[in-house]
Write a structure and sequence with these properties.
Structural class: alpha+beta
Helix content: 25-40%
Distance between the termini: 29 Å
Strand order of the largest sheet: 2-3-1-4-5
CATH architecture: 2-Layer Sandwich
Largest sheet: 5 strands, antiparallel
Shape: elongated
CATH class: Alpha Beta
Length: about 160
């Protein structure tokens, strides 16, 4: 079995940006998910568009897209990438009193877009929290995770059932 190592550490153990120059340019995609759990009344306010701060879904969607594009400014060792696609979906889960968030990010490049997808979900969730905190102090951001990646040396990796 191949020994696993942390790629962002050099031989001396110092943090560094990984050199991806020799890697092949391939189509890459990552899908991440998370959720914001809240009171049933809060979810109803969001879905009806009656929150005082405005359209939570539209603002959170745009915030997630913007966050994916700015990931290298937030995560110190991430490469700047030309993203070819970013989609953020928000779906209500009335039974779980939650908004389910999914981000799909694509590029054609030498490194993957997992961090961009995770950042998109994170910032969309934080935006929902920010816009709703005045009416629900008990919200929880949960289950942030990478669920799928495609392309690159490791190929397609499904980390979770869709």
């Amino acid at each position: 079995m191949e020994e696993k190592k942390l790629t962002h550490l050099d031989a001396a153990g110092h943090a560094h940006m990984v050199d991806v120059g020799a890697k092949a340019v391939t189509q890459r995609e990552a899908i991440a998910r998370g959720q914001v759990v809240m009171q049933a009344e809060t979810l109803q306010l969001i879905m009806s568009g009656n929150l005082p701060k405005g359209d939570v879904l539209a603002v959170a969607r745009v915030a997630g897209i913007m966050a994916a594009k700015r990931t290298p400014e937030l995560i110190p060792l991430c490469h700047s990438l030309l993203l070819t696609h970013v989609a953020v979906t928000l779906n209500p889960d009335p039974a779980g009193h939650a908004l389910l968030i999914e981000a799909t990010v694509r590029t054609s490049g030498q490194t993957g877009v997992e961090m961009e997808a995770l950042t998109a979900v994170s910032v969309a969730a934080l935006t929902i929290y920010d816009m709703c905190k005045a009416v629900d102090r008990h919200m929880r951001i949960e289950a942030l995770r990478l669920v799928q990646k495609r392309g690159g040396r490791s190929g397609d990796v499904g980390l979770e059932e869709r």
